[in-house]
Amino acid sequence: MANTINFIACGIVTVFLLLSIAFAGPHLLMPAVAMIVTVLVGGLCIYVANGLIISRNKIEKEWEANNPE
User: Fold this and answer.
1) What percent helix, strand, coil does the chain show, rounded to 5?
2) What integer pLDDT is reported at residue 3 of this predicted model?
């Protein structure tokens, strides 16, 4: 679920920034492109972190199943 929300949020913010470039003109090009890159890199970080958390939970469940206390 987090990945779906992440992709949707990144897409919406990117579209808003592209629209700001279109409406404000080329003088906003560099800051908006920098913000788009920042949003996409942040989204990638969230995607990777979510995958790590899911993998960690799976490994913990397997460990608990194999090593009962």
Assistant:
1) 95, 0, 5
2) 81
Are the CB atoms for 46 and 6 separated by under 8 Å?
yes
Q: Look-up: residue for tokens 């629209």?
A: 19
Most distant CA pair in the chain: distance in Å? 65
The H or E element containing residue 12 is helix 2-24
* More confident of the two residues 69 and 42: 42
Q: Which residues contact 28 (CB under 8 A, 6 or more apart)?
A: 20, 21
Question: Six-digit token pair at 65?
Answer: 């199943």
DSSP 8-state secondary structure symbol assigned to residue 67: S
